[in-house]
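Reminder to self: tokens first, then the designed residues, so the page reads top to bottom the way the pipeline ran.
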């Protein structure tokens, strides 16, 4: 509208200027009209959306996962493991001119807060997100931050743009550390990233690091110039103004990333490491500079202390129930001691960084190892299909026989090898469990089972020659990684059709590393 006002002022000046003749004014009038028409046509082609939320209610946002409006703020996640939450502006935003394929110059600023569970580093992170859909079905939690899943990662058909605030380092995604801000285009591997912080405005500019999991409110700014294709990202504590020097400043063409209409909002997730991710306020403009936030109206992250939470009340209650508390405390201590003896953390578990699942979790996942969930039987035990209740993740659970030849030594050997190996043609080990001498391993579920059943069994699936070639190439790729691609050479020593598993796309993955040997 500033351009429109300018042309109106010019037209008025031309009409009032006493020194010009009426003829000159009449000549200028068509030019003024043409310019005004161009401005009006361009304005009609771009629908601008602008809003400011100095606090939220359920009408402001569309929620999915475990996200909820808590008071006047949006809580994306809580302290539940393997969960995700997403909160979007409920209406789609017109962000790109279909006729010119030019993305609008959009801008956003928001205040967020990441609070870890006391005594932990907190995880996994959150993101400012532009997505073509509100649907969170199939989206993964944990390291995917509620943005994508493994099969979507890197696909140009995602049309997803995000600014991630990541608090757990994942080497597979080439992340610089566990406290960074990144620009993501259809992928979990950042287009550009930097350690979280802000630059001082002095002549000798220095960077001050911000700990994303400090529990303190942090303000972020995201500004995109559609004509210059320049993206600037900044963060700072709420008591600081927007830094003059952006944390990230890159030239990036979003015209092939974003669709004409997109949804804008936030996502966050937890894994085995948990934390609470909150959005306190938010301003957005799809075609111009976002309006400033009123930081004096920020909702409180922590509720005000009432009388029920005062020291006086606590002392009164403590004296009133002292004896029952001591009794219950003794019983609880006994139960915790028994549990600690049953769930002892092994030294090699810490070394290899694998998650230990409780035996109860795997019993629930496999429906108490029901025969209908049985996938196969081998010399070392049985393999069951399971579904984790918290994340709905489909897994395969290998239950080793107590009288099998694969004892604790082989069990640890398989964990030591597969627990650190990462390759597209190796079955991914997700975790383990142990109870009274019984060992269990949990892997990615392979829908098409083992290769031997397709080749020699009664399967109705007939492998085409292209599929057979793809499977052989996958086996070779996995073996090449074991022999030459990892930090240490690994000999599988048990390559056979029954140890080659096939995923939904008929990609071959080597499994069963119980006999492997490092050389």
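Designed residues (519 positions):
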């Amino acid at each position: 509208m500033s351009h429109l006002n300018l042309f109106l002022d010019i037209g008025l000046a031309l009409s009032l200027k006493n020194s010009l003749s009426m003829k000159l004014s009449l000549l200028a009038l068509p030019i003024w009209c043409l310019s005004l028409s161009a401005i009006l046509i361009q304005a009609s082609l771009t629908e601008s959306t602008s809003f400011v939320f100095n606090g939220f209610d359920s009408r402001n946002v569309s929620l999915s996962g475990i996200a909820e409006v808590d008071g006047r703020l949006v809580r994306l996640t809580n302290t539940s493991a393997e969960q995700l939450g997403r909160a979007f502006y409920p209406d789609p935003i017109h962000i790109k001119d279909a006729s010119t394929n030019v993305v609008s110059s959009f801008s956003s600023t928001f205040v967020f807060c990441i609070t870890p569970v006391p005594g932990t580093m907190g995880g996994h992170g959150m993101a400012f997100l532009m997505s073509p859909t509100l649907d969170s079905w199939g989206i993964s939690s944990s390291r995917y931050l509620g943005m994508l899943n493994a099969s979507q990662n890197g696909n140009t058909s995602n049309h997803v743009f995000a600014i991630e605030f990541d608090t757990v380092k994942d080497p597979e995604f080439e992340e610089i550390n566990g406290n960074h801000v990144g620009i993501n285009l259809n992928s979990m591997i950042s287009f550009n990233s930097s350690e979280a912080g802000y630059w001082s405005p002095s002549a000798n500019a220095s960077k001050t690091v911000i700990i994303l999991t400090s529990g303190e409110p942090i303000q972020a700014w995201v500004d995109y110039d559609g004509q210059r294709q320049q993206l600037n990202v900044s963060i700072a504590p709420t008591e600081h103004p927007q830094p003059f020097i952006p944390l990230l400043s890159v030239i990036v063409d979003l015209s092939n990333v974003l669709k004409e209409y997109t949804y804008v909002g936030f996502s966050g997730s937890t894994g085995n490491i948990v934390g609470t991710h909150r959005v306190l306020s938010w301003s957005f403009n799809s075609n111009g500079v976002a309006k400033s936030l009123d930081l004096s109206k920020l909702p409180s992250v922590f509720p005000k202390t009432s009388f029920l939470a005062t020291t006086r009340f606590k002392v009164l209650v403590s004296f009133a129930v002292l004896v029952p508390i001591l009794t219950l405390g003794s019983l609880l201590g006994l139960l915790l001691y028994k549990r600690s003896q049953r769930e002892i953390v092994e030294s090699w578990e810490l070394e290899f960084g694998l998650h230990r699942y409780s035996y109860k979790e795997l019993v629930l996942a496999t429906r108490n190892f029901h025969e209908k969930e049985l996938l196969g039987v081998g010399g070392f035990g049985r393999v069951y299909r399971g579904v984790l209740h918290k994340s709905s993740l489909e897994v395969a659970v290998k239950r080793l026989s107590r009288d099998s030849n694969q004892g604790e030594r082989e069990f640890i050997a398989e964990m030591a090898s597969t627990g650190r190996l990462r390759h597209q043609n190796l079955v991914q080990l997700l975790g383990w469990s142990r109870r009274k001498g019984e060992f269990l391993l949990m892997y990615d579920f392979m829908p098409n089972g083992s290769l031997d059943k397709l080749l020699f069994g009664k399967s109705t699936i007939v492998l085409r020659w292209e599929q057979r070639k793809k499977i052989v190439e996958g086996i070779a790729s996995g073996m090449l990684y074991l022999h030459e691609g990892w930090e240490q050479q690994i000999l599988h020593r048990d390559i056979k059709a029954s140890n080659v598993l096939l995923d939904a796309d008929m990609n071959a993955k080597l499994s069963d590393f119980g006999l492997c040997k490092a050389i």
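Residues 22-45 form the longest helix (24 residues).
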